[in-house]
Amino acid sequence: MTSPLTTPAAPPSAVRWTPRLWGTLLVLCAAMFLDALDVSMVGVALPSIGADLGLSTSTLQWVVSGYILGYGGLLLLGGRTADLLGRRQVFLVALAVFALASLLGGLVDSGPLLIASRFIKGLSAAFTAPAGLSIITTTFPEGPLRNRALSIYTTCAATGFSMGLVLSGLLTEASWRLTMLLPAPIAVIALVAGLKLLPRSEREQNHRGYDIPGAVIGTASMLLLVFTVVQAPEVGWASARTLLSFLAVAALLTVFVLVERRSPGPLVRLGVLRSGNQIRAQLGAMTFFGSYIGFQFLATLYLQTLLGWSALQTALAFLPAGLLVALSAAKMGSIVDRFGTARLIPVGFALMVVGYALFLRVDLDPAYAAVILPSMLLIGAACALVFPSLNIQATNGVDDHEQGMVSGLLNTSVQVGGAIFLAVVTAVVTANAPEKATPQTVLDSYRPGLVMVTGIAVIGLLITLSGLRSRSRQQSVVVAKSTLQEAEADRVPVRD
User: Fold this and answer.
1) Contacts of 404 (CB under 8 A, 6+ apart)
2) What domains, with CATH codes, occur in the chain?
3) Contact (CB, 8 A) for 171 and 40
4) For 183-193, how does the pLDDT look when each residue is reduced to its tens digit (9 = 90+)?
5) Which residue numbers delimit the Major facilitator superfamily (MFS) profile domain (predicted)?
6) pLDDT tens, 40-73?
7) Which of 3, 215, 355, 400 is the most buried (most CB within 10 A)?
8) What is the Rg, in whole angstroms, of the alpha carbon atoms belonging to the chain?
């Protein structure tokens, strides 16, 4: 896999940012922005939804979990479908479905229908996310141009998430339905622009047939895995249902690997995972997002439950991290070009570990300037470095006809990592829940969860640090070969 440091410079004609190129990127960024916006907005609106529709807590959680289930369960299928049927076509159809589901979610008066609309939105996002990322990686040549495009693209996720928290706090004051309806007109505008601007992509000439068994088994295994992890905190990690579900997931994944190894046109070409850089990118994505989503969950509980902050105040507390990511977007591409992903990802993880560890100092006195703000800024800097770099590392050196597959793998790692590690953090907090709840004992029950979050980030740091050793070995081999070739060239034959 190619490093940004070793990629040959693109020709001048390839690095011109034409208006059409900017328009293409903006359409793709709009879809990414909507995905993140939709996730953060619904979380703040849940209490109002439950009160209006008369939903129990167990039913209400599926307004969030339904989206996660559709998104995380179908990403592999979405990525490969984009490769086979055409990235532009898949992206636009899925974006249209997203707009319709948003409209449905804002108009329904039934809990099951609302959950169904959320599942459909997650399903459509499972196709727009890998299709959008693969459009970027096949439109922008590998190197500085792609690095800049990916840094802007990934920044939109953080911006959408931050804006979603603030907008939800404002819109929910009027009606929770506005939080569901807001993405619809944005999606329609992006759809109309996409019809005019997105480059037409040829379908892969797949003479080996479609991997229907792999698609069915892979999708079923991901759906069951996400469903099991989401439900485990409620039904119990050691319950027969949870254990049997995990056993079924293991069986399905085993069958999936066997099918993919024998398929002439696999849903996931397993050989792509032989690359150390690819494995580090996938595991890094799992630990990065898993630790962050766990931190956000605990920090929100701390700010709202213990400190009594409003939803809007809580959103503003997280805002500095999002703003830092947004402001760094224009510079991240050149930073990656200069230092390379193998260096930036561990640095970002280290900043994240320090930010989480600093947040462990919180107490019942809200020391925002001394503890909370520095933590948010460190975490924001980590997100600015890590997330674009992971996307660049995962997609560099991959053939165009497999960009959708790799994009689907990366997004699956993000979503499954978030679901698994959030469930683990929740279980740790629940296990330490006090019998007699006082503000101090509740705060004390959060600390093991924060320690777990920090530990997950440390694991990510250790995994990504191995990339530095690998890069050093590769450079040593290159230098040794170069020295040997120069020595041979310097030899002058001696004639008798």
Assistant:
1) 78, 79, 80, 81, 82, 83, 87, 130, 131, 134
2) 19-200+214-483 (1.20.1250.20)
3) no
4) 999 999 999 99
5) 24-472
6) 788 778 778 888 898 876 677 788 778 877 887 7
7) 355
8) 23
What's phi and psi for 143, nearest 5 deg? 130, -155
User: What number of other Cβ atoms are within 10 A of residue 475's Cβ?
Assistant: 13
CB 180 within 8 A of CB 113: no
Between CA 196 and CA 33 the distance in angstroms is: 20
Tokens standing for residue 333: 């591409």
pTM, two decimals, is 0.79
Region 258-272: mean pLDDT is 81
Q: Which whole-number Å values give the CA distances from 408 to 23, 77, 193, 416, 421, in the listed order?
A: 23, 8, 24, 12, 20
Residue bearing tokens 């953060």: 40
**HSE of 173, CA atoms in CB hemisphere, 13 A:** 8
Q: Using an 8 Å Cβ cutoff, are 439 and 364 in contact?
A: yes
Say how many residues make up the chain.
496
* Integer angstrom CA distances of residue 221 from 228, 255, 361: 10, 10, 40
Residues 424/429/435/436 CA torsion (nearest 10 deg)? -160
